[in-house]
DNA sequence: AATGAATGAGACTTCATTCAT
DNA sequence: CATGAATGAAGTCTCATTCAT
């Protein structure tokens, strides 16, 4: 109650707040939430420890803001591609390949962030809710895009969720390349085939 | 410094060690690794705090042993089903349904455990390695079982990984039922269809 | 280091200073000295945190000024009553009742203020001195008033101190009503009897 | 929830716990609650900071236990005197003098403790409750003792409260000797006269 | 004169691990 | 083998005060 979280309006303050988010998020993702202390975050962001609590409720709050930023960065280019051109049976395969490769590139960059975030989303209710909201938003957007492009698909929502999960798994396997004798290119093709079969299905009836 | 971890050989000692693993793992899964302290584990296991460090290197060590136990319990009934009867094109669909429902039941029980473990596997190298080994083991077993049942499948390993990921996703969506307007039964059927299409594929050529 | 405390002379400045005292004192009394921070005081007084240190040496300084204000407000109506009419053996009893009821009303209003102030007067030398000075001033005034009204009382100063203490205790018991089975009206009458006996004593000889 | 407050049963532990109470209370009374930190208490008691939280919920808890100890020490000799001999009209005056002088001696010893405690009792609900309970207990005991000694007094409870307050005030004035031109011996006699008048009152009817 | 962002020391508390018994 | 009291480093967060603007 006594502590007031400042909502910065001046340019300098906004910059400082963003710096804390950016640098704090970076550190947390690199070292893990429980292994990063506020002093480190402050130092890394070039501010004093006290100022953090002017802009954020607590350590977790920094992370939450970081997640928001991170999600936006991930989602934006994907939606942009999906919206950029009319999706047809002819261009859907290369479009999927492009999407997956973009996703992989992005996830490569935020590899560790990803790990720590998933980790926390499992054990922290607030963060988990953030994750779920974002996934739901993504799913709904994709459904809308498919419908807008005249795809008529039964059980479209369920399929989209399966597809999202499939692509995420695929990307993870590729990025971490955990199992040496797994051919990632083959795996990608198989995944795309699955997606195509889900999306074609009713189109075949034509 | 040169603390020696005892490998208990006497019955009493082994029982004590197992009790610590079992109870400690239970607590950690229930409350989270970072929110469970050794004093609690000791009390819950009915031992003194000091004795823990006779049997385990550190707190994490208890968890690692717990994970081993937990995986065995999850895997055993699945492999048992897959090994119990000849898998054919005729019985594979109901068999998959049975498998999925068993998996869901198991995961229901270890719901929180699951969360916390995934969480830790993302941020802790050792635990992650444990997870990967287990997944690899599972995948290889399934490949063997499929081959043993005369399925001839191209890119079988990649497909099995995709299937495992798919099923895991499916189970998670069902268990957490995060999105209200998602029909779980429909989703299950769609997932099974995907699996069947992956497995049938080359059989069709016959 | 050589921070100079401004003594404001312009009207605007004086008003600002008074606002800080008034609002700061209000907050401190409501929430306690240790639980009220300067940011809150500033906000509540409608000034910036920085300006506080132009007018006051430190946080305690605001409180000290508040106490001065507060005492004057308490003392004024009491002295006014005592000075308003000739005190005689005939009107002293109802006059005492009026005084006590006024005191209670005032203390009701500044209930929490009272608590926090007493509290601080015990642990802080400066504040304690302020309190003592005020009590002494009050006692001397009362002595003078009694003498002015031709009361000839042995050991008058000691008695007045006892009376002041008695009345304070009485008011506190009544305000806080800590003990349910204590009849406050009875207690008031008993206290008045004591006071009368102390004041009458030598008058009786006449 | 996770932290368990140990209730020590072994001799060593009890001694250590008492040491923390004794030394912690001493420090807090000397320096003030807000000006004494746990590290100091630990150091002064010759223990580590951590161990404090094995025996006490928090810093305040140490103080509360100290208060209990302190009260018992204050009350015991007073009650002992009151119980030691039959109280009659003849011996009540010297007995009161003895009581007051004992109280003063005790309060001298715990002078600073007293200050800080009163202070905290004003701003802290728990501590205030402790104080009130003790005062109530004391009042009831005195009522019983008076009745046991065949004093028949109207409004006895109210009078006892007034007396307790009176004596407390008296002692404080004497100890702090705040006002130079106050004759403490005179004041004591006047106070005793008041008490006698309150107690005699109905006896006179005989 | 005024602002309010920034500082940074210091407070309380936790807990994995050790060690005297 | 076992106990559980003890350690003390480390963590999060607060806030009186300062200072650049």
Description:
- 4 copies of one chain form a homotetramer.
- Chain A has 206 residues and is mostly helical.
- Chain A is built from 9 helices and no strands.
- Chain A has 2 domains: 1-57, Homeodomain-like (Arc Repressor Mutant, subunit A); 69-205, Tetracycline Repressor, domain 2, CATH 1.10.357.
- In chain A, α1 (11-31) crosses α6 and α6 (111-123) packs across α7.
- The radius of gyration of chain A is 20 Å and the shape is elongated.
- The N and C termini of chain A lie far apart (63 Å).
- The mean pLDDT of chain A is 87.
- Chains in contact: A-B, A-C, B-D, C-D.
- The interface between B and D is small, with 6 and 2 residues.
- Chain A binds a DNA duplex (21 and 21 nucleotides) through residues 2-3, 6, 8, 10, 12-13, 16, 37-39, 47-54, 58-59.
In brief, what are we looking at here?
The first copy, chain A, is mainly alpha-helical. The first copy, chain A, contains 9 helices and no strands.
Over all CA atoms, what is the radius of gyration of chain A?
Answer: 20 Å
Shape of chain A: elongated
CATH third-level topology of the largest domain in chain A: Tetracycline Repressor, domain 2
Largest interface, with Cβ-Cβ < 8 Å? A-B, 38 and 38 residues
CATH architecture of the largest domain in chain A: Orthogonal Bundle
C-alpha end-to-end distance of chain A: 63 Å
Element order of chain A: H for helix, E for strand: HHHHHHHHH
Summarize the SSE layout with pairings.
Four copies of one chain form a homotetramer.
Chain A: H1 11-31, H2 38-45, H3 49-55, H4 59-84, H5 92-109, H6 111-123, H7 125-148, H8 156-176, H9 184-200
Chain A binds a DNA duplex (21 and 21 nucleotides) through residues 2-3, 6, 8, 10, 12-13, 16, 37-39, 47-54, 58-59.
